[in-house]
Specification:
alpha/beta; 47% helix; 8-stranded parallel β-barrel; 20 helices
């Protein structure tokens, strides 16, 4: 690239979503976010990720906050910056596939409450599970001129995942009507020179902007960004330094400094970024002191690259083995994980496929016979309830685990009847806003508990009167 051609790289800031999801289990409350919004709005970020992923569940369950209210407050504060969310395709932000009318309604309300960019992914990279979300976003865009559908491909390694696979996926995404593509490297598996090769090939195949998302877990992420930007990537995901590195993203200020004075110069003001970092630093110290931020997640874990297993999945597995007094079987399970993954059609290891593969591998090793016992989730994957995998699943395993059962080959949501009316009828006594129906759709029990708490707050229930048996919450 000649020195004259300027191609500033965009940065999406993750501190209000993925950074605290990765480091402190999504526990940052809205009150912690609001005082710094005005300052963050001055940076000129490509976008700020502040919603979706686990924030919805954590807000209701642990923080006793309405996630919709958080979004509205953030939207009020960010006058000039686009807001972004993470959306699990047909699973929205929950853990099961929902009917298309719920998906459409959720997209509608997300944009209405302030989201600009919806990043949509599927744990199997089955694009059929993403089409309804893209269509819903495009419908709003045609009507109101806002809303951007970004499809994220869960990056992974394996025989099926050749350069040709990624390039073909990029072409299909363009055909689906998405506005941009994200390579979502949740386990930090993408190494620098491979990133350059991947971005270059995808850039030749599609006109869509390409964004790169990775985690620092394996220690290579900043170098991966450097090579990706040189290869033409448009946007990278970073976190302000107090909540960067470890299982989070590379640090925003470091990447801004790296590209200073080059054709990729972001033009962001380091003084403004320093003030944002100063704001979050005491909170980070507080999280360390309380144990909410465990120093373990701040280091580099090269095992991620050796075993291609995301950090969260490894810690799950260790605790499962501990419970069974079988920690000595750790390496047997690590060997078994790629085998189970192959049997199940080589899916990327990301929520929920990582948990399904990991748990099944633990069972296979501890039972002394493979698939002697299969979890209900393993059965669901084999039946096709999560969608189509890149490679065929093992016929031998199918015959052993679900003998004679019918498997589905259509898009799983084609079998789900519209459900908005039914959901609304179930929860109507708690409804104070249309969005409440969606909160209930995703997390029926957790949302109901929150609604009870909210009502108690509004009615200022007195402790002596509180009906704890029915989980009413006093002030």
């Amino acid at each position: 690239m000649s020195e004259q051609v300027k191609k500033p790289v965009g940065i999406m800031e993750t501190v209000l979503r993925d950074a605290h999801q990765s480091l402190i289990a999504t526990r940052m409350p809205t009150d912690m976010m609001l005082p710094i919004v005005e300052k963050m709005d001055k940076v000129g970020y490509h976008a700020v990720e502040c919603w979706g992923g686990a924030t919805f569940d954590a807000s209701l369950r642990f923080l006793k906050e309405d996630p919709w209210e958080r979004l509205r407050k953030l939207r009020d504060g960010f006058k000039n910056t686009k807001l972004q969310m993470l959306f699990r395709g047909q699973n929205i932000l929950g853990y099961r596939p929902y009917a298309d009318d719920v998906v459409e309604n959720f997209v509608e309300k997300s944009v209405a409450n302030g989201i600009d960019i919806i990043r949509i992914f599927d744990c199997l990279n089955d694009l059929r599970n993403l089409q309804a979300t893209v269509d819903a976003t495009n419908k709003i865009k045609a009507r109101e001129g806002r809303g951007h559908a970004q499809i994220a491909l869960s990056y992974t390694l394996g025989d099926a995942y050749t350069l040709e696979y990624w390039v073909n996926m990029a072409k299909k995404i363009e055909e689906m009507g998405a506005d941009s593509i994200c390579i979502k490297d949740m386990a930090g598996l993408l190494v620098p020179y491979k990133a350059a090769e991947l971005i270059k090939a995808m850039k030749e195949a599609t006109k869509l902007p390409i964004q790169l998302h990775t985690h620092y877990t394996s220690g290579v992420a900043s170098m991966t960004y450097l090579k990706a930007v040189e290869a033409g990537v448009d946007v990278i995901d970073c976190a302000i330094s107090p909540f960067a590195l470890g299982t989070s993203q590379p640090a925003t200020e470091v990447m801004v400094e790296t590209f200073k004075g080059t054709p990729y110069d972001t033009g962001y003001d380091q003084n403004v970024l320093a003030e944002i970092a100063d704001y979050f630093r005491p909170y980070r110290d507080e999280c360390l002191a309380s144990g909410l931020l465990n120093p373990k997640v701040m280091g580099v874990d090269i095992k991620t690259l050796l075993y291609q297993v995301p950090g969260g999945m490894l810690s799950n597995m260790v605790s499962q083995l501990k419970e069974q007094n079988a920690e000595d079987r750790y390496y047997d399970v690590l060997k078994e994980i790629p085998e189970v993954r192959k049997d199940l059609g080589e899916p990327p290891l990301v929520t929920p496929s990582s948990q399904i593969v990991g748990t099944q591998a633990v069972f296979n090793v501890l039972m002394g016979e493979r698939y002697k016992m299969a979890t209900k989730e393993t059965k669901a994957v084999l039946r096709g309830e999560y969608g189509q995998t890149v490679k065929p699943m093992s016929q031998e395993v199918i015959d052993k685990v679900i003998p004679g059962e019918e498997r589905i080959t259509c898009r799983p949501a084609d079998l789900i009847e519209n459900e908005m009316d039914k959901l609304e009828a179930e929860m109507k006594e708690w409804k104070q806003q249309d969005e409440d129906v969606l909160s209930y759709a995703l997390f029926p029990q957790v949302a109901t508990d929150f609604f009870k708490y909210r009502q108690a707050q509004q009615e200022k229930v007195d402790m002596t009167q509180a009906d704890t048996k029915n989980a009413a919450y006093p002030v």
